[in-house]
Every structure is written in C-alpha cells, then in structure tokens.
UniProtKB/TrEMBL annotation:
Its EC number is 3.1.3.-. This is Cof-type HAD-IIB family hydrolase. Keywords: Hydrolase. InterPro entries: Cof, HAD-like_sf, HAD-SF_hydro_IIB, HAD_sf. The keyword Transferase does not apply. One of its GO terms (molecular function) is hydrolase activity. It comes from Enterococcus entomosocium. It is an enzyme of class 3 (hydrolase). Gene3D superfamilies: 3.30.1240.10, HAD superfamily/HAD-like. It comes from the Bacteria.
C-alpha cells in the first residue's frame, strides 16, 4: 500500500507549457483524499516552485533545492542543509574560472555574481533547452529582456549574501557547453564535499553532500513512520536518480525521462505532456 508519493516538477509534474495539468492535479488530490501524502521534490527554490503548485490547487509539503530544505505547505522551513561560506566561495571561484554563469539559491532570494554577458548566454541555453527550435545564438539576442534574466538579482560580490546572513542552499550553473557541464559533474565531487547533479544536460546543481532527493525522502519518511516499500517516486532527470533507489516500493520514470532514469526505475509512465504523473497514480493507487 502506498502511503507517500514524491514527485519531481520540471519534466515530470510540470508540462512543456509550464503548467500542471488538470488531470495530474486531480489524481494528486484524489490520492490525498485517500490519506496518501504527496510531496514535491524539486531542484527549484521554494519561491520558484510554489506558484505553479498553488495554481493547480495542490496543497503539500516541499523538498526543495534537491533536499536542501524541507518546507511545509505554508512555506515554513522544517529542516535545512546549507553550504558553508568557505565552500560557496571556493566553488563559485572555480565555476567563474571555467567561464560559467553562476546562480545562488539562498534564504534571501536568488542571486548571481556573474557579468551580464555570461548571464545572457546562460539564459539563451535555458531558452534553447525548453524551446529547441530556437537556437542558442538566436535566443541570446533577446536574453536580456527575458524573465529568466530579470528574475535573478545581480550582486557585485558574494559579501552581499553573507553580510546579510543569508544561507546558500544550492549553487547552480548553466551552459550550452554540455561537455564542460558533464566534466564538472564528475570532477567537483572529487575535490569538494558536495553533491553535484543537474536537471538537464546544460546545468550543474551543487548542494550539501547530504542534500540528495532520495536521501531527503528517506529521512522524511522515517520521521513519518512510513516504510520505504510504501513510497512511490516519480522523476525524469539526473537529479532524480537518487529517488529511484530500488528499496522504494514504486519508482516511476516519465516517458520523456533520460535513459539513465528509465533504466533505474521499476516502472515507466507517459510523458509530462501526456499526464504521466496522473496516469502513474491511477495505475498504482485505487482512485475513483
């Protein structure tokens, strides 16, 4: 019997039109009505995750920044795993030396110490990721006007974060140079005590070594008295691999998932544009 459903957002619960479908939301709410807990597990910050979830009418807890924070349905921080100031400074310096744009998810918002040029190329890589028909070069031309560019606060120095007593939950970096990103995923954990993963081939997500989606779910379930066999997890990308531990009872890959996720999961559902989350819930949970 399933007692907990943990779902990723981007590429999973959120469709390519950046919304949670009515069918997926309906299945989630019906499962909740049966007493099954639903929790969001995402690489996003809480502030970035909550609008789409609320718009779909879903009330739930959140494991955000790949498990760096656990928030309740009202946004209160229940537990946290942040990065130390020294580690943040060292890693940001390394990423900037690699000519990458850097963003920091903090308790005070999302900031970037990178210059405008790097930020525009990073936004162009994001646009191309979501809209492959638009080339990176074409996306760059309007990147400075895009909401993805404007929603991150530029800072002159990391001092602006630490002097305000903000804590860093995740360091993220984007580049259309996927080979460079893949290499850093391998090398950074060998140098620093961090967990390094990503939502897409174009990005790095760097967190506390204990901030892993799978481990966060296990810790959460243990405190709730939920056995691992009573947990269903759903994901699509690199940062979801920890959620696909075979000890979980039901691990589900989206139809649009990367091959590594499909190989690791016990089951597969339809894509995020075909209500894959809702169909997985209907398959394994007896809902009307």
């Amino acid at each position: 019997m399933i007692k907990l459903i943990a779902s990723d957002m981007d590429g999973t619960l959120v469709s390519s039109n950046h919304k949670i479908s009515e069918a997926d939301a309906r299945a989630v709410k019906k499962a909740q009505e049966k007493g099954i807990e639903f929790i969001i597990t995402t690489g996003r910050s809480y502030e970035d995750a909550v609008p789409q979830v609320h718009q779909a009418g879903i009330e739930c807890n959140y494991l955000v920044m790949n498990g760096s924070e656990l928030r309740n349905e009202n946004g209160k921080i229940i537990q946290s795993l942040y990065l130390s100031e020294m580690l943040v400074r060292d890693i940001v310096a390394e990423l900037e030396n690699a000519n990458l744009c850097v963003e920091l998810y903090t308790t005070g918002g999302t900031f970037t110490p990178s210059d405008a040029e790097r930020r525009k190329w990073a936004v162009a890589a994001k646009i191309n990721q979501f809209h492959p028909k638009i080339s990176v070069e074409e996306a760059y031309k309007s990147a400075g006007e895009h909401f993805l560019y404007r929603e991150v606060t530029p800072i002159a120095s990391l001092d602006e974060i630490f002097e305000n007593d903000y804590f860093v939950g995740k360091i993220i970096s984007f580049s259309h140079d996927t080979e460079k990103i893949a290499a850093l995923r391998r090398t950074l954990p060998a140098i620093y005590p961090v967990n390094v993963t990503g939502s897409f081939a174009i990005n790095l997500e760097i967190t506390n070594p204990l901030a892993d989606k799978g481990q966060a779910i296990k810790t959460y379930a243990e405190k709730k008295g939920i056995h691992l066999k009573e947990i269903m997890t759903i994901g699509d990308s690199y940062n979801d691999l920890g959620m696909l531990d075979e000890r979980f009872g039901y691990t589900v890959a989206m139809g649009n998932a990367i091959e590594e996720v499909k190989e690791a999961a016990k089951y597969q559902t339809d894509t995020n544009d075909e209500n894959g989350v809702g169909k997985a819930i209907e398959r394994f949970v007896q809902i009307d």
